Amino acid sequence: NKRPGGMLTYGIPSYKLEKNIIDAEIEVIKELGVEIKCGVEVGKDVTIQDLKKQGYKAFYVAVGCQGGKLPNIKNEDANGVDIAVDFLAKATDNQDQILDGDVVVVGGGNVAIDCARTATRFKANKVTMVCLESRETMPASKDEIMEAEEENVIINNGWGPKEILVDENGWVKGMKVIKMELGEPDASGRRRPIEIPGSEYEIELDTVIMS
Question: Residue 78, SS3?
Fold first, then answer.
């Protein structure tokens, strides 16, 4: 990345953690004598062997786990579909952007809440969350849910994405969702969602964020 700080910089919205606070902490690290080089891809721009030749004796790898998953539904790679970590990173790089139209966030955790509340700050017309869990079992913290609703985020519990709908130019125009109920826990302890036949409906939208 072009800035240090990892997920503190690129994953937590500024309304929750101001970037100048992170920058101040990083400056303290620099004052202790640490040199930070940004925009370097290890294995491509420099290798461990290169660094050994430069005299470095020990190496600590802390690359983080910045990634996201798509739900494996039709048209999930359409224009206008974003993954949460990418959306939040771009929000850090451009905090003055405008999100035209309606936004749907798929997910019920704190990161999904972060995306929804960030979208409201980017002047989205309407922001809706769609999540499998009930209101009581959403993984997001209760205060985060309350604050999102205070900012007019609509939360639809017990629904899952079925298909992304696109226009003739390949841009997202809507999403087909279906009512879900959670079945028995699988080997990982997660309860497998089960579709309820005949409960599908379509949501018109302009942007989808998968969290």
Answer: coil
